[in-house]
Task: inverse folding
């Protein structure tokens, strides 16, 4: 079994910065994609940023240029640096690991519990 534990988040003022971190643990051989999604009540969960094992990154236009994702493959960790925050960035942020290859030979996707990010105007 694989667990994702998130840290960071909290409250920031508009224009400020926050950092989120996520550590994956368990019977992991490799993780193809690590990323962050966010969700507000009544809306679908949306991609914030993702990074492939080779380092390629992907951002939607709403955060590109403001958010930066990075990962440490050896430690199975992913970090999201969020700058120039806006009130519309307020959401619960979820860590995600896709195509996780485990020691038992299975391939699965996993989610963290979520962490609240609130940006005040």
Result:
């Amino acid at each position: 079994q694989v667990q994702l534990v998130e840290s960071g988040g909290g409250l920031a003022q508009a224009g400020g910065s926050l950092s989120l971190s996520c550590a994956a643990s368990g019977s992991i051989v490799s993780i193809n994609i690590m990323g962050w999604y966010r969700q507000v009540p009544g809306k679908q969960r949306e991609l914030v940023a993702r990074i492939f094992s080779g380092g390629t990154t992907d951002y939607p236009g709403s955060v590109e240029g403001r958010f930066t994702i990075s990962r440490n493959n050896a430690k199975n960790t992913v970090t999201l640096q969020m700058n120039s925050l806006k009130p519309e960035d307020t959401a619960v942020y979820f860590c995600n690991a896709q195509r996780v290859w485990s020691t038992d030979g299975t391939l699965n996707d996993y989610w963290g519990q979520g962490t609240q990010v609130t940006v005040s105007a």
